[in-house]
Every structure is written in C-alpha cells, then in structure tokens.
Amino acid sequence: MCRATIETNVSNGDTSIGAGLNLGIMYLLVMPYLIAAVIGFFWYRNSKKRKAKFTFQGEKF
Description:
By secondary structure, this protein is mainly alpha-helical. The protein has two helices and two strands. The protein has one domain (3-56). It has helices at 3-11, 16-53; strands spanning 55-56, 59-60. A two-stranded antiparallel sheet has the order 1-2. The chain crosses the membrane at residues 25-44. Keywords: Membrane, Transmembrane, Transmembrane helix.
C-alpha cells in the first residue's frame, strides 16, 4: 500500500486502514524486544536453579 492511498483514505474519513497499519508497525517494533525478554527471563531462571543446585550446606562447589 502506498502512502498516497492511505492519506486519501484518512482524509476521506476511513481511519481503519491507517489504524491497522499503525498497529502492524507497532507489532513489528515490539516483537523482537518481547522475544528477547522472554528468552532472558528463562535464561535467568535456569541459571538461578543451576546455582542453587550446586550449593550444599552453605558451601559453594
């Protein structure tokens, strides 16, 4: 879709296409950060469990 088509539709009162396009742009912007955050959370949780596993009576191995 070209910019002129969207501007024409918005100026004629049809804002659904412009809103959908903005939502798609926001989706593409947020997804990489969300995926990185989820991977980081699981990595942190896994490393915390692994650290607790090697602790024996207050001494670390």
